[in-house]
Specification:
By secondary structure, the chain is of the alpha/beta class. The protein has a domain at 8-180 and 219-246 and 283-296 and 322-327: Rossmann fold (3-Layer(aba) Sandwich). The protein is 37% helix and 16% strand. It has 10 helices and 13 strands. The strands form 4 sheets. A 7-stranded parallel beta sheet has the order 3-2-1-4-5-6-11, with helices on both faces. Strands 7-10 form a two-stranded parallel sheet. Strands 8-13 form a two-stranded parallel ribbon. Helix 1 links the parallel strand 1 and strand 2. Helix 3 packs parallel to helix 4 (147-167). The longest helix has 22 residues, at 90-111. The protein is globular and about 55 Å long. Bound molecules: nicotinamide-adenine-dinucleotide and uridine-5'-diphosphate (UDP) (2 copies). Residues 335-344 have a biased composition (Polar residues). It is found in: Golgi apparatus, Golgi stack membrane. Keywords: Decarboxylase, Golgi apparatus, Lyase, Membrane, NAD, Signal-anchor, Transmembrane, Transmembrane helix. It is a single-pass type II membrane protein. Residues 10-307 form the NAD(P)-binding domain.
Length: 344
């Protein structure tokens, strides 16, 4: 594509699970991509294949510190997303959501860039309304172990809408529901990665509580398509907009499906339910269907098969053992442009 038509797109958290798929897609669409990451939970392995492109740049940076670059669009994805990762250093999690949002919004204000926020279904907390639509204001515990993530993301939404009203920023806020796929961290404790790794190793599958809580799982390619479509909407479209798959499954159903697809000998075992674990979660995506003409197209079985193949590859290369060693603890002190993880 000629130089003058290329957009300069920045992706914070670009070395993570969702961010790396997004970088890939943005590059394929003919953009110049700047990936900004402090490697807290993301890895260079996730974006190594993009480094050979002259249209891809990687910057090690912690977004809780100011950043001065010139860009046209910003996708703000930086934030640990799995409970064990975001609870490892909860103060840093809130700082990433809140100070990070202020810095990225300040950058968008100066450069007049359009800015996308990766918000979350966790803003609904443990919901009394089902399925959850964007009008529902949520039921979030402000002082529990999940609060650093939930309230941090809620405050980031507040900042996005205040910058929009006060400084006329062009904002796009997506509320992302559980998403899975290749490049999930094998030891991040999330249910899909946990169950697949356990099943492939024929180890017990750990169901928390009675396994009757529900989630709705979206394959990563569908989610990235939703991100791009939301970013491309008219300026009047700000969100918040739910993005997710409406297929709702109990965690027990997910476990049984993973066992079946892997042909595993694993047995199901029951463990205590974590504090404030939401009992039901299913997106109402009426708004996204209408405004983006978007809905997920990858069925759970097909998405799981692709994810299983990815984890089979990781296990046979021994990479999960390596990352298990590296992820306990996953980080050292953070700060500015310095390394935030010993191996990064
Ligand atoms: P991830 O942990 O794989 O990716 C997060 C990335 O952000 C990592 O590469 C990490 O190193 C980086 N990061 C963390 N703190 C940073 C900081 N201070 N400065 C710079 N980089 C930092 O998680 P993911 O699943 O890819 O999630 C991406 C985004 O989407 C997150 O904001 C998350 O809250 C949101 N989200 C994800 C899901 C999901 O199911 N995957 C659901 C809802 C919301
Ligand atoms: N900021 C940044 N990059 C920029 C512009 C601003 O990181 O290109 C940060 C800066 O640290 C600032 C924050 O964004 O504190 C918010 O910027 P804003 O202009 O809203 O506020 P102010 O500069 O008045 O604090
Ligand atoms: N979960 C489980 N076993 C696991 C990991 C998670 O039963 O090994 C449950 C967890 O308690 C929650 C659901 O699966 O009810 C989804 O958990 P995850 O951490 O993936 O996402 P979130 O709770 O943030 O939706």
């Amino acid at each position: 594509m000629p130089k003058f038509t290329r957009k300069r797109v920045m992706v914070t958290g670009g070395a993570g699970f969702l961010g790396s798929h997004l970088c890939e897609r943005l590059l394929a669409n003919g953009n110049d991509v700047l990936c900004v990451d402090n490697f807290f939970t993301g890895t260079k392995d996730n974006i190594a294949h993009l480094l050979e492109s002259s249209h891809f740049e990687l910057l090690r940076h912690d977004i809780t510190f100011p950043l001065y670059v010139e860009v046209d669009e910003i996708y703000n994805l930086a934030c640990p997303a799995s409970p064990i990762h975001y609870q490892f250093d909860p103060v840093q999690t809130t700082k990433t959501s809140v100070h990070g949002a202020i810095n990225m919004l300040g950058l968008a204000k100066r450069t007049k860039a359009k800015i996308f926020q990766a918000s979350t279904s966790e803003v609904y907390g443990d919901p009394e309304v089902h399925p959850q639509s964007e009008e529902y204001m949520g039921r979030v515990n402000p002082i529990g172990p999940r609060s650093c993530y939930d309230e941090g993301k809620r405050c980031a939404e507040t900042l996005f809408f205040d910058y929009h009203r006060q400084h006329k920023l062009r904002i796009k806020v997506a509320r992302i529901f559980n998403t899975y796929g290749p490049r999930m961290h094998p030891n991040d404790g999330r249910v899909v990665s946990n169950f697949i790794v356990q099943a492939l190793k024929n180890e017990p599958i750990t169901l928390y509580g009675n396994g009757m809580q529900t989630r709705s799982f979206c394959y990563v390619d569908d989610m990235v398509e939703g991100f791009i479509r939301l970013m491309e909407t008219e300026d009047e479209v700000t969100g918040p907009m739910n993005l997710g798959n409406t297929g709702e499954f109990t965690i027990r159903q997910l476990a049984e499906l993973v066992v079946q697809l892997t042909g595993s000998r694993s047995k199901l075992v029951f463990k205590p339910l974590p504090i404030d674990d939401p009992r039901r979660r299913q997106p109402d995506i009426t708004l996204a269907r209408r405004v983006l003409q978007w809905e997920p197209v990858v069925p759970l079985t097909e998405g799981l098969e692709k994810t299983i193949r990815y984890f089979e590859g990781l296990l046979s290369s021994g990479a999960t053992e390596d990352s298990r060693r590296r992820s306990s603890p996953p980080l050292v002190a953070t700060g500015g442009n310095t390394a935030s993880r010993a191996d990064a």
